[in-house]
Design brief:
This protein has about 625 residues and is of the alpha/beta class. Among the domains are: about 80 residues, no CATH class; about 70 residues, no CATH class; about 190 residues, SH3 type barrels; about 90 residues, no CATH class. It is built from 21 helices and 19 strands. Strands 4, 5, 6, 7, 8, 9, 10, 11 and 12 form a nine-stranded mixed beta sheet that branches. β6 and β7 form a beta hairpin. α1 crosses α3, α6 crosses α9 and α14 crosses α15. The radius of gyration is 36 Å and the shape is globular. The two termini are about 45 Å apart.
């Protein structure tokens, strides 16, 4: 107990103790000696100035009952030890132990959910109240102020009584209830469309329920409310403030990337450029992942025995823009026998129709250095470097690429063990002609975005069973993305909902991936393409997103195949034993063809769950590895 100072107490008349009231002095002295040391106001004189004799008696009785002060019979038998004559070592041994800190209570992690998706998706439009009649200007301004000032009902009722003494018509017509005024205010605002869909409740997601309650939950469906993302992004594009911060066009080439439009994720995508492309001599667009013919301008060309400045082949990794000059980041392609120094013999050996991709030999080309597109090259993603493997002859092409060469380490890997270029996945999913017609042949605006997904509880002690999905525009600077107003909620999965079921309901996001027609600010139609550039979240959720097992599994990393025994090995070869999109897809096809027991064993050894990423339902051009980066804030 800490005694308040005399100045902090209200001034009041305190009756003085009668002469000879030794009991009061004894009480006050006992209480003072039982309290911890405080400031100068804790002296005996200050104590009598603050508390009356009756207060002292009540405090003493309470202290005795709470065992703060010893009872009289205990005082008679108490042994007083003089510590002044005890050596320091012995005094330290008799000193009381300091209080031990209490261990913190940690919440258990959420349990993984099974995958139960419904093929038939039926949405219902949620009616949002809207008042067509314009609100009185005075009522509108007053309602905004009341909401901002957090005026209570009683305060508003008193304010109305005061204002109604005036003869102004607007004041006379004020509603008597503040809720009516706020409801009228909300009715004046333009609301975003909200849709709903009934999804089943998964009892395994509710471990706190009794068995009877879990049985009841199996018979119920819950509404999943979704803010329609198409009108949401359309409303953003109609905002002059949002457009003033928005970046549109090709990726920006800078020495060091600081924004998302300066990264390879933007440069390697076809759908992020708002219809702006580098062009071939015939004015057709150059897409990332294209094989191009270009004129080599280096006198120190690595091709042996060939004259300089001759045409070479290269694969476009990304398309950039630097001071209105369009630049192509291109990986060189050579025949194995043309490399210096020569590559060691391989098993299986190189074939005459085989080309090899130089992974770390990237050159920057301008538009005028590109001679044309080379479509007669086949990418063999099924090839594996194992003894006895046969290099397949391309079905309808002259050349094939099935291996990559890294000059820095003089190593050769299968093409399957390289990260996919986003443009390659987009062409495989939507087709080249569809992308040309959608992005190049008409007006187009691209709004790449990030998606944050994570399960959480409304309170600290609540089981984390609500799945939140939020959209963050990637076309604005990092300072704008950090603002709460630019973190746009899409849906909150209800308690007990299944993660794949929630994801399967976000079909409107897939329409944005393909492109939809909207009306621009000038009243003319324009094609809107909004694709997810990355999914972010904490480590367990990101593993669920990627279709991998949780971090506590033996192979719990979603980017490599490291095991639990060597998790502390910083020299682990994450390049040779990494995870790659086409390799993971091939592993899933192989495991699916096995009997159930062998299939489960293979998935366990690879650290994969039995079903692929549920996000492929809404983002079919998804890279199951690079689309799920490590988020520093949630690692």
């Amino acid at each position: 107990m800490i005694l308040p100072s005399v100045e902090d107490r209200l001034e009041e008349d305190v009756p003085e103790a009668p002469q000879g009231s030794e009991n009061a002095d004894t009480l006050s002295e006992a209480i003072i000696h039982s309290l911890p040391e405080t400031d100068s106001h804790s002296t005996t004189e200050g104590f009598h100035d603050v508390f009356t004799n009756e207060e002292c008696r009540m405090m003493l009785e309470a202290a005795v009952e709470e065992q703060v002060l010893p009872r009289e019979e205990d005082l008679e038998s108490e042994v007083v030890v003089d510590l002044t004559n005890i050596p320091c070592e012995e005094a330290e041994e008799r000193s009381p132990d300091p209080p031990r800190p209490q261990p913190s209570i940690e919440m258990p992690p959420p349990r993984p959910s099974g995958i139960q998706t419904s093929p038939d998706i039926v949405f219902e439009t949620v009616d949002v109240p809207h008042i067509e009649t314009p609100m009185d200007e005075f009522h509108l301004l007053l309602a905004v102020w009341l909401d901002d000032a957090r005026i209570t009902r009683q305060q508003y009722a008193s304010l109305v009584q005061i204002l109604q003494t005036s003869k102004m018509q607007s004041i006379q017509e004020l509603p008597l209830d503040i809720n009516t005024l706020k409801r009228n205010l909300r009715g004046q605002m333009s609301q975003l469309p909200v849709i709903s869909r009934k999804i089943p409740v998964i009892p395994s997601q509710l471990p706190t329920l009794s068995p009877n309650q879990r049985h009841l939950n199996q018979q119920y469906m819950k509404n999943l409310y979704i803010i329609d993302p198409i009108p949401l992004i359309t409303r953003l594009l109609h905002s002059p403030m949002f457009q003033s911060h928005m970046y549109k066009g090709l990726a920006e080439l800078v020495p060091r990337a600081g924004e998302l439009w300066q990264s390879l994720s933007w440069a390697s995508s076809i759908r992020s450029t708002s219809g702006e492309f580098a062009q071939y001599p015939d004015h057709s667009p150059i897409f990332p992942s294209d094989i191009v013919r270009y004129r080599c301008r280096s006198r120190e060309c690595c091709v042996a025995g060939r004259p300089p400045f001759m045409p070479h082949l290269g694969r476009v990794r990304g398309v950039y823009k630097q001071e209105n000059i369009k630049v192509l980041g291109t990986q060189s392609i050579r025949q194995p026998g043309d490399l210096l120094p020569p590559i060691d013999s391989q098993d299986p050996p190189f074939e005459s129709f085989e080309l090899i991709l130089l992974e770390d030999d990237e050159v920057l080309l301008t538009e005028d250095e590109v001679l044309g597109r080379e479509p007669d090259v086949f990418h063999d993603r099924q090839f594996k470097i194992v003894p006895g493997m046969i290099v397949r002859r391309p079905p309808s092409s002259t050349f094939t690429i099935c291996r990559v060469y890294k000059k820095s380490g003089n190593t050769v890997r299968a093409l399957q063990q390289t990260h996919a270029i986003r443009g390659e996945l987009e062409i495989a999913q939507y087709g080249r002609q569809h992308l040309v017609d959608t992005l190049s042949s008409q007006r187009c605006v691209s709004v790449p975005y990030q998606t944050f997904m994570d399960g959480f509880g409304l309170y600290r002690t609540m089981y984390r069973s609500i799945m939140g999905v939020y959209m963050i525009p990637s076309c604005v600077p990092v300072a704008e993305r950090a603002k709460r107003s630019n973190v746009l909620p899409i849906t909150l999965g209800p308690h007990g909902s299944n993660f794949p079921e929630v994801v399967g309901s976000l079909t409107h996001l897939r329409r944005l991936e393909e492109g939809v027609d909207i009306t621009w600010t000038d009243g003319r139609p324009i094609r809107l393409v909004a694709g997810c550039i990355a999914y972010i979240g904490d480590m367990p959720q990101q593993n669920d997103n990627a279709g991998c097992k949780r971090p506590h599994a033996n192979r719990g990393c979603r980017t490599c195949l490291i095991t639990e025994e060597v998790r502390d090995d910083f020299q682990f070869d994450i390049e040779t034993f990494g995870r790659y999109h086409f390799q993971v897809q091939d592993q899933r096809r192989t495991a699916t063809s096995q009997p159930p027991t062998a299939r489960a064993k293979m998935f366990k050894e690879l650290g994969l769950v039995k079903d692929p990423s549920p996000l492929l339902q809404i983002c079919p051009a998804l890279d199951v590895v690079t689309h799920f980066p490590s988020d520093i804030c949630h690692s």
